[in-house]
Amino acid sequence: ELEPYYDGIQSRKRYAKFWKGVEYDPELIKFQSSDTSRAGASAMAFAEGLFNGKGPLDTCKSQPVYISSFPRDQDYVLQPQIACPRWNRTVFNNPYLLEQMNIYGNKTLAPIAERISKEYNISSSIDPQLIPYIFTYCQFWVVHFNRTDTWCSLLSPKELLSLRYYWDILHYHRLQYGHPFNKRMGCVYLTQLVTGVDDFLNGKSYMIADLKNGHSYSLLGLFTSL
Protein backbone atom coordinates (compact mmCIF):
# COMPACT_ATOMS: atom_id res chain seq x y z
CA GLU A 1 0.00 0.00 0.00
CA LEU A 2 2.98 2.32 -0.31
CA GLU A 3 1.87 3.79 -3.64
CA PRO A 4 -1.54 5.13 -2.49
CA TYR A 5 0.10 6.29 0.75
CA TYR A 6 2.58 8.41 -1.19
CA ASP A 7 -0.22 9.51 -3.52
CA GLY A 8 -1.96 10.96 -0.48
CA ILE A 9 1.17 12.81 0.59
CA GLN A 10 1.68 14.10 -2.95
CA SER A 11 -1.94 15.24 -3.17
CA ARG A 12 -1.53 17.49 -0.14
CA LYS A 13 1.71 18.91 -1.54
CA ARG A 14 0.50 19.44 -5.09
CA TYR A 15 -2.84 20.93 -4.06
CA ALA A 16 -1.53 22.77 -1.03
CA LYS A 17 -3.86 25.72 -1.56
CA PHE A 18 -6.91 23.45 -1.61
CA TRP A 19 -5.91 21.44 1.47
CA LYS A 20 -4.55 24.35 3.49
CA GLY A 21 -6.12 24.35 6.93
CA VAL A 22 -8.40 21.41 6.11
CA GLU A 23 -8.80 18.84 8.87
CA TYR A 24 -10.65 15.59 8.51
CA ASP A 25 -14.39 15.78 8.96
CA PRO A 26 -16.62 13.06 7.48
CA GLU A 27 -19.15 15.73 6.52
CA LEU A 28 -16.50 17.59 4.51
CA ILE A 29 -14.38 14.77 3.11
CA LYS A 30 -15.92 11.54 1.89
CA PHE A 31 -14.01 8.33 1.23
CA GLN A 32 -15.63 5.55 -0.76
CA SER A 33 -14.17 2.30 -2.05
CA SER A 34 -15.52 -0.75 -3.78
CA ASP A 35 -16.26 -3.69 -1.49
CA THR A 36 -12.97 -5.42 -2.32
CA SER A 37 -10.33 -5.59 0.39
CA ARG A 38 -7.55 -4.18 -1.80
CA ALA A 39 -9.58 -1.10 -2.76
CA GLY A 40 -10.51 -0.48 0.86
CA ALA A 41 -6.88 -0.86 1.95
CA SER A 42 -5.77 1.54 -0.79
CA ALA A 43 -8.33 4.10 0.37
CA MET A 44 -7.04 3.80 3.93
CA ALA A 45 -3.43 4.14 2.79
CA PHE A 46 -4.29 7.24 0.73
CA ALA A 47 -6.02 8.77 3.75
CA GLU A 48 -2.96 8.04 5.90
CA GLY A 49 -0.80 9.92 3.43
CA LEU A 50 -3.24 12.77 2.99
CA PHE A 51 -3.61 13.41 6.72
CA ASN A 52 -0.10 12.32 7.64
CA GLY A 53 0.77 13.77 11.06
CA LYS A 54 -2.45 15.75 11.32
CA GLY A 55 -4.62 13.38 13.36
CA PRO A 56 -5.25 12.88 17.09
CA LEU A 57 -3.81 9.40 17.63
CA ASP A 58 -0.50 8.57 19.29
CA THR A 59 2.87 10.14 18.54
CA CYS A 60 2.44 9.66 14.77
CA LYS A 61 -0.73 11.77 14.87
CA SER A 62 -2.67 9.25 12.77
CA GLN A 63 -6.12 10.20 11.53
CA PRO A 64 -8.83 7.50 11.38
CA VAL A 65 -11.33 8.01 8.57
CA TYR A 66 -14.65 6.51 7.61
CA ILE A 67 -14.64 4.63 4.29
CA SER A 68 -18.02 3.68 2.88
CA SER A 69 -18.75 0.95 0.37
CA PHE A 70 -21.71 -0.81 -1.19
CA PRO A 71 -22.21 -4.50 -1.98
CA ARG A 72 -20.90 -5.06 -5.48
CA ASP A 73 -24.32 -5.94 -6.87
CA GLN A 74 -25.56 -2.52 -5.67
CA ASP A 75 -22.51 -0.41 -6.51
CA TYR A 76 -23.51 1.51 -9.62
CA VAL A 77 -20.68 4.02 -9.14
CA LEU A 78 -17.46 2.02 -8.75
CA GLN A 79 -18.56 -1.40 -10.03
CA PRO A 80 -21.38 -0.62 -12.46
CA GLN A 81 -20.61 -3.56 -14.73
CA ILE A 82 -21.05 -6.07 -11.91
CA ALA A 83 -24.16 -4.32 -10.59
CA CYS A 84 -25.89 -4.16 -13.97
CA PRO A 85 -27.70 -7.36 -15.06
CA ARG A 86 -28.16 -6.01 -18.58
CA TRP A 87 -24.41 -5.49 -18.99
CA ASN A 88 -23.79 -9.07 -17.92
CA ARG A 89 -26.34 -10.37 -20.41
CA THR A 90 -25.49 -8.26 -23.43
CA VAL A 91 -21.89 -7.09 -23.09
CA PHE A 92 -19.99 -9.64 -21.04
CA ASN A 93 -21.39 -12.48 -23.11
CA ASN A 94 -21.30 -10.58 -26.40
CA PRO A 95 -21.29 -13.22 -29.20
CA TYR A 96 -19.13 -11.03 -31.43
CA LEU A 97 -16.47 -10.78 -28.73
CA LEU A 98 -16.50 -14.53 -28.20
CA GLU A 99 -16.07 -15.01 -31.94
CA GLN A 100 -13.11 -12.61 -32.03
CA MET A 101 -11.45 -14.27 -29.06
CA ASN A 102 -11.88 -17.69 -30.65
CA ILE A 103 -10.23 -16.52 -33.88
CA TYR A 104 -7.42 -14.87 -31.95
CA GLY A 105 -6.94 -17.97 -29.83
CA ASN A 106 -6.55 -20.24 -32.84
CA LYS A 107 -4.20 -17.91 -34.71
CA THR A 108 -2.07 -16.61 -31.85
CA LEU A 109 -2.50 -18.43 -28.55
CA ALA A 110 -2.40 -21.98 -29.88
CA PRO A 111 0.99 -21.59 -31.67
CA ILE A 112 2.55 -20.02 -28.57
CA ALA A 113 1.23 -22.82 -26.37
CA GLU A 114 2.56 -25.41 -28.80
CA ARG A 115 6.01 -23.79 -28.96
CA ILE A 116 6.38 -23.58 -25.17
CA SER A 117 5.17 -27.16 -24.74
CA LYS A 118 7.76 -28.45 -27.22
CA GLU A 119 10.58 -26.24 -25.98
CA TYR A 120 10.16 -27.35 -22.38
CA ASN A 121 9.20 -30.96 -23.15
CA ILE A 122 5.76 -30.69 -21.61
CA SER A 123 4.05 -33.97 -22.45
CA SER A 124 0.55 -32.65 -21.94
CA SER A 125 0.32 -29.52 -24.08
CA ILE A 126 -0.40 -26.23 -22.34
CA ASP A 127 -3.97 -25.01 -22.64
CA PRO A 128 -3.82 -22.00 -25.03
CA GLN A 129 -6.28 -20.14 -22.80
CA LEU A 130 -3.60 -20.01 -20.09
CA ILE A 131 -1.10 -18.18 -22.30
CA PRO A 132 -2.47 -14.65 -21.68
CA TYR A 133 -1.94 -15.18 -17.96
CA ILE A 134 1.75 -15.83 -18.55
CA PHE A 135 1.81 -12.27 -19.87
CA THR A 136 -0.05 -11.08 -16.74
CA TYR A 137 2.48 -12.79 -14.45
CA CYS A 138 5.27 -11.31 -16.56
CA GLN A 139 3.85 -7.83 -15.94
CA PHE A 140 3.59 -8.51 -12.21
CA TRP A 141 7.23 -9.50 -11.89
CA VAL A 142 8.42 -6.53 -13.93
CA VAL A 143 6.33 -4.00 -12.01
CA HIS A 144 6.95 -5.32 -8.50
CA PHE A 145 10.43 -6.81 -8.75
CA ASN A 146 11.92 -5.31 -11.93
CA ARG A 147 12.67 -8.80 -13.18
CA THR A 148 12.27 -10.17 -16.69
CA ASP A 149 13.93 -13.53 -16.04
CA THR A 150 10.84 -15.33 -14.75
CA TRP A 151 7.56 -15.52 -16.70
CA CYS A 152 8.70 -12.97 -19.27
CA SER A 153 11.54 -15.26 -20.33
CA LEU A 154 8.99 -17.72 -21.72
CA LEU A 155 7.88 -15.24 -24.38
CA SER A 156 9.59 -13.57 -27.32
CA PRO A 157 9.27 -9.80 -27.84
CA LYS A 158 6.77 -10.40 -30.64
CA GLU A 159 4.72 -12.74 -28.45
CA LEU A 160 4.67 -10.16 -25.67
CA LEU A 161 3.12 -7.64 -28.05
CA SER A 162 0.62 -10.21 -29.31
CA LEU A 163 -0.48 -11.04 -25.78
CA ARG A 164 -0.85 -7.38 -24.90
CA TYR A 165 -3.25 -7.23 -27.84
CA TYR A 166 -5.29 -10.07 -26.31
CA TRP A 167 -6.16 -7.91 -23.32
CA ASP A 168 -6.76 -4.90 -25.58
CA ILE A 169 -9.38 -6.87 -27.52
CA LEU A 170 -11.05 -8.06 -24.34
CA HIS A 171 -11.18 -4.64 -22.68
CA TYR A 172 -12.24 -2.86 -25.86
CA HIS A 173 -15.31 -5.04 -26.29
CA ARG A 174 -16.25 -5.57 -22.64
CA LEU A 175 -15.45 -2.18 -21.17
CA GLN A 176 -15.05 0.36 -23.96
CA TYR A 177 -16.32 1.25 -27.41
CA GLY A 178 -16.70 -2.31 -28.66
CA HIS A 179 -20.30 -2.29 -27.42
CA PRO A 180 -22.56 0.81 -27.45
CA PHE A 181 -24.01 0.01 -24.03
CA ASN A 182 -20.62 0.69 -22.44
CA LYS A 183 -21.07 4.40 -23.15
CA ARG A 184 -23.70 4.44 -20.40
CA MET A 185 -21.71 2.69 -17.70
CA GLY A 186 -20.11 5.85 -16.32
CA CYS A 187 -23.32 7.88 -16.20
CA VAL A 188 -24.05 7.34 -12.50
CA TYR A 189 -20.50 8.32 -11.53
CA LEU A 190 -20.56 11.43 -13.71
CA THR A 191 -24.01 12.45 -12.47
CA GLN A 192 -22.90 12.09 -8.86
CA LEU A 193 -19.73 14.09 -9.55
CA VAL A 194 -21.50 16.98 -11.28
CA THR A 195 -24.31 17.05 -8.71
CA GLY A 196 -21.81 17.12 -5.84
CA VAL A 197 -19.89 20.06 -7.30
CA ASP A 198 -23.10 21.90 -8.15
CA ASP A 199 -24.51 21.39 -4.64
CA PHE A 200 -21.32 22.72 -3.06
CA LEU A 201 -21.21 25.80 -5.30
CA ASN A 202 -24.86 26.54 -4.56
CA GLY A 203 -24.54 26.11 -0.81
CA LYS A 204 -26.54 22.87 -0.65
CA SER A 205 -23.59 20.81 0.60
CA TYR A 206 -20.48 21.36 2.70
CA MET A 207 -18.59 18.41 1.23
CA ILE A 208 -15.37 19.62 -0.41
CA ALA A 209 -13.86 16.28 -1.48
CA ASP A 210 -15.41 13.00 -2.60
CA LEU A 211 -12.50 10.54 -2.85
CA LYS A 212 -13.08 7.14 -4.44
CA ASN A 213 -11.02 3.97 -4.80
CA GLY A 214 -12.14 1.55 -7.46
CA HIS A 215 -10.69 -0.46 -10.30
CA SER A 216 -9.32 -0.10 -13.79
CA TYR A 217 -12.66 -1.15 -15.25
CA SER A 218 -14.32 1.60 -13.21
CA LEU A 219 -12.15 4.17 -14.99
CA LEU A 220 -12.47 2.58 -18.43
CA GLY A 221 -16.25 2.72 -18.15
CA LEU A 222 -16.06 6.32 -17.00
CA PHE A 223 -13.77 7.39 -19.85
CA THR A 224 -15.97 5.61 -22.40
CA SER A 225 -18.98 7.61 -21.21
CA LEU A 226 -17.27 10.96 -21.69
Automatic annotation (TrEMBL):
The keyword Ligase does not apply. GO terms for cellular component: membrane. It comes from the Eukaryota. Belongs to the histidine acid phosphatase family. MINPP1 subfamily. Its EC number is 3.1.3.62, 3.1.3.80. It catalyses: 1D-myo-inositol 1,2,5,6-tetrakisphosphate + H2O = 1D-myo-inositol 1,2,6-trisphosphate + phosphate; 1D-myo-inositol hexakisphosphate + H2O = 1D-myo-inositol 1,2,4,5,6-pentakisphosphate + phosphate; (2R)-2,3-bisphosphoglycerate + H2O = (2R)-2-phosphoglycerate + phosphate; 1D-myo-inositol 1,2,4,5,6-pentakisphosphate + H2O = 1D-myo-inositol 1,2,5,6-tetrakisphosphate + phosphate. This is Multiple inositol polyphosphate phosphatase 1. InterPro entries: His_Pase_clade-2, His_PPase_superfam. Its main location: membrane. GO terms for molecular function: acid phosphatase activity; bisphosphoglycerate 3-phosphatase activity; inositol phosphate phosphatase activity.
